[in-house]
Design a protein that fits this description.
By secondary structure, the protein is of the alpha/beta class. It has one domain: 3-Layer(aba) Sandwich (Rossmann fold), CATH 3.40.50.180. The chain has helices at 2-7, 23-31, 55-63, 114-125, 142-150, 167-175, 184-194, and strands at residues 14-19, 42-46, 67-70, 81-84, 90-93, 99-102, 129-133, 154-158, 180-182. It has a 7-stranded parallel β-sheet, sandwiched between helices. A two-stranded antiparallel sheet has the order 5-6. The longest helix is centred in the middle third of the chain and has 12 residues, at 114-125. It is globular and about 30 Å long.
Length: 197
Amino acid sequence: MWQKANMTTGKYKIIVIGASAGGREAFLKVLSPLPEDFPIPIVVVQHVHPTQNMFFIEDMNNQCRLAVKQAEEKEAIQRGKIYFAPPDYHLLIEEDKTFSLSFDEKVNYARPSIDVLFESAADAYASEIIGIILTGANFDGANGLKLIKNSGGLAIVQNPEEAESPTMPKGAINMTKVDHILTLKEIEEFLKKLVLF
């Protein structure tokens, strides 16, 4: 499993991750162990209620070695940071590697939508992207992960047997021939291996 990652070291310029039910706990397990010099920016969509207090971002920031923040309109994406989509806005990545926010209609009953982020990231980064689907209770992210895979990027899905809610991982696996189906611990180890060689 690691040999493939070692052979492609330096290829990936961004990691996008999506989750719904059970996502906060999953994100902590994957992201908090990453070293403070982890060089690849990470962009996250977590399904939240439109009026959700985003205190968990501050909590994540306190528990992660990397800086964790809410993405902002026209913000340039920087290495070594973890960005979360704000509540009730789609988060997109533009060709110039900046963020844009959209209040367009919900996609898969969600705003922010994982598909919207993944599709725009695939357009902006092509084969230089890793897409990861974690636990969730609907099928958001399946189409976006397929686009990432079709653009030459790497597709990773949490093992549905481990997921708090397996619907989203199963949907992604059914839609795409993913590269890896991993536990949260294995995803964390995989990401750290990317920058060791």
